[in-house]
Amino acid sequence: MASRKILWFIVFVILLSIFIDLPKLPNFNILGKSMRFDFPLKLGLDLQGGTQLVLEAQMDKIEPQNRDSALESAKNVLEKRVNLYGVSEAVVQSSKIGNQRRILIELPGLKDASSAAQLVGKTAQLDFREMIGTSSEATQSAVALLDHFRPTGLTGADLKKAQVTFGSDTRVQAGPQVAIEFTSEGAQKFAEITKRNVNKPLAMFLDDIPISWPPPVVQQEIIGGSAVITGQFTTQEAKELAIQLNAGALPVPIKILEQRSIGPTLGQESVNKSLVAGIIGLVIVAIYMGAYYGVLGLVADGALVVYTLLILAIFKTGLFILPPVTLTLAGIAGFVLSIGMAVDANILIFERMKEEIRWGKSQRSALELGFTRAWSSIWASNVSSLMTAAILFGMGTTLIKGFAITLSIGVLVSMFTAIVVTRTFLRLIIH
Fold this sequence. Notes:
Blueprint: H1 2-21, E1 27-30, E2 33-36, H2 45-48, E3 50-57, H3 67-85, E4 91-97, E5 100-108, H4 113-121, E6 126-131, H5 145-148, E7 149-155, E8 159-167, E9 175-182, H6 184-196, E10 202-206, E11 209-211, E12 226-229, H7 235-247, E13 254-262, H8 264-293, H9 295-317, H10 329-342, H11 344-358, H12 363-395, H13 398-430
Antiparallel strand pairs: 1-2, 3-5, 3-13, 4-5, 6-7, 6-10, 8-9, 9-12, 10-11
Helix pairs in contact: 1-9, 1-13, 3-7, 8-9, 8-10, 9-13, 10-13, 11-12, 12-13
């Protein structure tokens, strides 16, 4: 009875994996609504193309003991900007090369390198400045603005959120705007600033560059902590400004050392070659197992097919619990390597079964004893592989981490297919 339940569970897993692995799923009508279930395979920068940026943090004005924390803060801000921008599976990582501190950003699928550089390269320090003296003393030249406005102490650090809106008043601006809302402390500062600057201009600066010029004139004290940044924005520029403000200001200036777009042609060629390598590996292993172990080998081949279907489904969905796996060339290498490891447990079990049969045991007894006595070796070899993968993931770069993740998934799934799938199939054959 237990074996029958396990068999039905295996059948369910196989059917679900096939459903997920289908390249294009048909539309389904559920309660009169057309619904589409699609599980695309997420590809990394080296496979689908995109944009890669290498940035250097300017640490000249940062104390040496604070530079590591400043680098980590800058990395976190850039990570927020990238996530708010909507780039999926982006990679942001920091590194130290001698006295240089760099940040590497990989944006899969994003082809416009200049737009990405503009998004992440700005310090995005917003501050409000009030005019010194009277309006007649101040020039209307943008060049002379710094001499006639002074900081009020209200900055982007006092912001609660920023979002894109569209103005409808043609006297002010009809088009994209950035509506900002201050924190409770920021709202109090804003009320005090507007109260003392009634009928005076209040300028907004982003990275020491004025925006919304000429500066708006305060009509009355503004209570509530809300304001609107206007200017000659396109919708994209307003969106990027809102992203930068929401993510916060960079704690250090950033210099772009390298920006390049990576085309998908090389990635597609790599995917094709990797698929060929994987198929060749599967075929060679299947032929070897069938030729050397006969019926046992054919059963192992069937379990290997289940293994491949299940691995691909996990890569696509993350078992609906974890994020889907982003597949890179290194990740494909880990998968191809795990194909050979997938039959390692079967070989240990089959050799134990052959020994039990030579000692006079029946096939049914040899099956159960073979699995039981091979378990300690299977457990030890796979745990050592998982420990190695954990070390690679903890200490390696992004590419090495991709290799470690796919290798770990392969090891865990191979244990399932060897202990559960192969065992169930052999029990059915022997019975």
